[in-house]
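Hey, I was hoping to borrow your eyes for a little while. I've dropped the whole record in just underneath, so have a look:

——
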Amino acid sequence: MILLWCRIQRLFSTPAGAHKAKDATCYARSPVAGYDAHARSNIAGIRFQLLYGVLRTFDVYGDDHVAEVLLEGIEDVDVRRRPEGGVLKAARVDNTYMQVKHSKDPKTWSWLDHEHILDNFVAVYRLDREARFSLVTDFALRSELDEFSRYCAGKLGHLPPTLLQKVRSVATRAGLATAELPTFLRRITFERIHDGDLIAQLQAAVIRHFDVTAGNEALFVSHLVACAAGWASERMPIRQALLETERLRVAEWIGLGVENPAVRDRLIESPPDRIAEPRGRRRDR
């Protein structure tokens, strides 16, 4: 509101054209400038999360053990697997719960702690001891957070004492016993994927699993991302049958070409090539 009022005042109290130059100064001094930047970051984060979520939905094609994918489930993206051998009682099911985060800047341990990402993972782990976890980012990890990611991946033999104390503090806060910590941490993976690589992988998945001609994959991606927003809001389990329905829908639209469905179905009449000239009006030559 402050920004809007500022723009209105400038618009009506300055000469034509002058308000544009002054608007930037007005905006920079406005307290909503920070909120606006935060909003843009949130939108970029939602976009990244939806794109990655759609990419993960194709796991239902490539992995026979993946039953469904859920967006905005327990975590940002949940990959649910079928029980091994179809036996429910003693089945081992490695469901994967993913946090998907976007930022323009590298992050450190303080960011991970502030976001309570490990706390959330621990809460799920206490209910599902077979669960796996993944932190997906489009930014670099620095200092202690980088060391932590390498330890979880088995690339670092032990955590530095100060970092180990911080990890134990989070575990205690979240209600996880110290003895269980090593096993829990080995179930966490980190994945970094740049925006361009994410889109390229998504288009490649569409071409492979939807068997579409290269050149049309962007249409399928655009439609699936739009669908994903609705699926996430409704927490709808995404299975292969659902993706196949949307594949056929887009294929049908492409097949129509430039044909107008309303004209085809005689809902409206096709416009004449030339509009008849009203009687009695003489056309100027």
Residues 69 and 238 are 5 Å apart (CA to CA). Strands lie at 66-71, 77-81, 96-101, 132-137, 188-192. Residues 62-192 form one domain. The longest helix spans residues 32-57.
